[in-house]
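User: Predict the full complex structure for these chains.
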Amino acid sequence: MATFRFRTPVSETDARKPNIGDTVYVSGIMITARDQAHRRALEHVRTGKPIPVSFEGGAIFHCGPIAVKEKEKWRIVAAGPTTSTRMEAYEAEFVEKLKPRIIVGKAGMGAKTAEAAKRFGAVYCDFTGGAAVLASQRIRAVKGVEWYDLGMPEALWILEVEEFGPMTVTIDSRGKNLHDIIQRSAQDRLTEILKTLGVSQ
Amino acid sequence: MSPLKSYHVVRTKSCIYAGLRGLRPHGGFLLGIEKTVEKTAVEILRRAVIYLPKDVKEALNNAYEKETSEAGKTQLKAILDNINLGESGKTPICQDTGIVLFYVTVGKDFGDFSFIPEVLLAAVRTATVEVPLRPNAVHPLTRKNSGDNTGTNMPYINWDIGDGDNIELTAMPKGAGSENMSSFAMLTPAEGVSALKRFVIDQVIRAGAQPCPPTIVGVGVGGSADIALKLAKKALLRPINARHPEPEIADLERALLSAINMTGIGPMGLGGTFTSLGVNIEYAHCHTASLPVGLNMQCWAARRATARIHRDGTVEMMS
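Assistant: Here is the predicted structure of the two-chain assembly.
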């Protein structure tokens, strides 16, 4: 398994290098976006309204942090990933239109996102779910917050990160999806598992 | 549960001063029972989101030692490192500090307890700012965030009746990653326990990485639809190293756990042995024509904290 250290903005060529199972670290700018930020960003793209940040070549983070404002400056207290499957409805279009190269979350994403990663050149990486203090240690500064009207978890937090990771690539640009492989393998074992419980199909 | 610490109370003619040693100093102040319950609720919320219960930490350490997959071991290492960092920095271990659920058991000799909902509401508002907790509570349809973790029926209080002159107060901040994997099935009595087993394994596979494994699986059997789900969540309050007192149920808990850990989903769903740390089952008798089964999952960050508050203002931290 290879290790990749990326700095934003990331080129399409670089984003196409990792394979599932590889380790990734990201430095530079990472922007949080959850369900509502995805939805609003895509609405703005469709209606031609401006978006306050550029995602091109960037890293997006499925995360709703705990942030505190100290002397007019935001500080991130805890910022682990949220379940990425909720963003499946939006991510393919988001990747196509807004061109992020790295998507960070947990628990993986579905076929539509994997297809977009393959077509447009992006990777999806898992950061350990719940490991919010570990994650916040790699956040150097809050560069800004946009769309705060969506609430603290759903706002766009623009974070400066250093060596954010280690993360595991679970969707690469070759159409491979590690979570999908593991889940299918669990499904394949179902009969055998039920047998140990004395249950025949 | 045996108390870990108790706090002395100094009584004067007209008031009670509680010296809450080991708690955040509240200064020299006057504490009525209402204020004591409120302060204690803030404290257990703080403890719940920062310090994992001992049984959960032990189970995670054990999983780390025994996990055979490299990916799984890496995830467990990150989890354990994160727990230590949270404790040493007094920081919530996960940014999803959940929605706030309380379990209140009121002793029959406690006396008037009508003030409890109001002080728990105040405690949640205070904890949101002071701990801090992430403001998670939104209107279910407009999705507007109330900003302080409160709202209609939130925090939610589960009531019970107990003995003695005390109330036992448990805070269970429940994250959405695991909660979103809850499920319910109205099984047929003819299929019985086989259907229950199949349902549990199916749901664990369906959930995959989403509930932040290694999980704790709470199963509520019987009662009615709502009762089964309530029991499934209540099952998560039991320490994972404590099996159900009835041997048949305890055996079922063990069998389901080892079956779940054959799926290979593993820590964070990246492959491995430890998909779950424990299975806890609670049941209620049900209608002869029904077999309701509720399932509530808990992530590895299984946060809960309990305190016992006596009428005289003495507070015992139970976890």
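Residues 5-50+93-175+303-317 of chain B form one domain.
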